[in-house]
């Protein structure tokens, strides 16, 4: 009887633990009532490994992840109709998906429900030190900082930038006000020790950060990045649309324009991707015809990359997900082809749109 009980406990523990690290991100598909369960699918495995888990820390929440996080997640309880017990609506925390260690962050509820503001992006500059050492948190957790960007809806060049060290009890706020020529503030990149806010148009922001016990933002600089790439018309000028994503790797910042038709049965059907990289020597976007060793992953709240050679690929590509779909897509830049894959076809309903999740020891 004791052995049977022990086996049952081990099974429950394994079910609540995330899969082991892989060379590429896992595709995580929430399913079940209240998004209770998660299906993990790894396309880089010879047999397309998949497993099903119950991770309460991910249930019904949004999870942001970029390369600078080095595997950590920024997890948000952002649905006012969801029962997050033992968490509350507006709570957020950092989560290490390998060790399941979590570090509480200040509530973002005030800004999330403030009239006229909209959450644009979340970012972690570097992985935090262990929360088990209180002295570490008291010392400001090194250079690790969390940022949340809330833009003013309908107000170009206006936003509130929230920031703190992991373990801090309150957010610090930096107001971005009426910077001439800057469009809507859309997303953030942390690249080679600098924070960049990418905006609509050619004007972007470079944020100076002082990493101290009391972190500060002493100044904001406007940078202009020209873009002379011309886009071919498809499906009629009024029937096509572009969604833009930024992905930073260890050596590049890529801008990905996902072009699709919004008409009839072709709604959300991606026809082509335009991929550019930021040339800091000329301060211009340069179109690329090959991603070389970069494999890029984009979904609603994640922007990741890994090595093509590490996956056994001969060239880079882009993997992406689509709204209201379980499948994922692969875009090959060289021949402009789009390949669709449907993982876990027998997954019980209801299921929800997937997200990429890296569970590594290191990120490229």
From TrEMBL:
Q: Which domain of life is it from?
A: Eukaryota
Instruction: Name the InterPro entries on file.
Output: KIB1-4_b-propeller
The KIB1-4 beta-propeller domain extends over 40-330
Q: What is this protein called?
A: KIB1-4 beta-propeller domain-containing protein
**Species of the source:** Papaver somniferum (Opium poppy)
């Amino acid at each position: 009887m004791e052995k049977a009980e022990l086996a049952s406990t081990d099974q429950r523990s394994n079910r609540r633990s995330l899969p082991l690290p892989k060379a590429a991100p896992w595709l995580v598909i929430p399913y079940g009532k209240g998004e209770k369960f998660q299906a993990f699918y790894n396309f880089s495995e010879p047999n397309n490994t998949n497993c099903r888990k119950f991770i309460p820390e991910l249930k019904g929440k949004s999870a942001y992840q970029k390369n600078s996080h080095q595997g950590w997640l920024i997890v948000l309880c952002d649905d006012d109709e969801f029962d997050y017990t033992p968490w509350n609506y507006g709570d957020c925390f950092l989560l290490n998906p390998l060790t399941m260690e979590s570090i509480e962050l200040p509530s973002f509820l005030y800004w999330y429900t403030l009239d006229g503001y909209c959450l644009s992006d979340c970012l972690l500059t570097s992985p935090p030190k262990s929360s088990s050492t209180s002295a570490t948190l008291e010392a400001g957790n090194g250079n690790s900082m969390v940022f949340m960007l809330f833009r003013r809806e309908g107000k170009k060049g206006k936003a509130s930038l929230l920031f703190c060290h992991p373990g801090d009890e309150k957010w610090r706020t930096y107001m971005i006000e009426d910077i001439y020529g800057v469009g809507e503030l859309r997303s953030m990149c942390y690249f080679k020790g600098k924070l960049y806010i990418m905006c609509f148009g050619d004007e972007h922001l470079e944020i100076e950060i002082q990493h101290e016990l009391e972190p500060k933002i002493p100044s904001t600089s406007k940078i202009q990045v020209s873009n002379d790439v011309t886009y071919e018309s498809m499906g009629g000028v009024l029937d096509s649309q572009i969604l833009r994503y930024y992905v930073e790797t260890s050596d590049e910042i890529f801008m990905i324009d996902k072009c699709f038709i919004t008409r009839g049965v072709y709604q959300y059907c991606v026809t082509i991707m335009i991929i550019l990289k930021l040339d800091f020597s000329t301060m211009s976007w340069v179109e690329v015809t090959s991603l070389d060793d970069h494999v890029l992953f984009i979904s609603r709240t994640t922007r990741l990359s890994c090595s093509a050679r590490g996956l056994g690929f001969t060239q880079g590509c882009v993997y992406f997900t689509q709204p209201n779909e379980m499948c994922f897509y692969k875009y090959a830049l060289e021949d402009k082809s789009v390949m669709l894959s449907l993982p876990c076809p027998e997954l019980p309903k209801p299921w929800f749109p997937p997200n990429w999740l890296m569970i590594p020891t290191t990120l490229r």
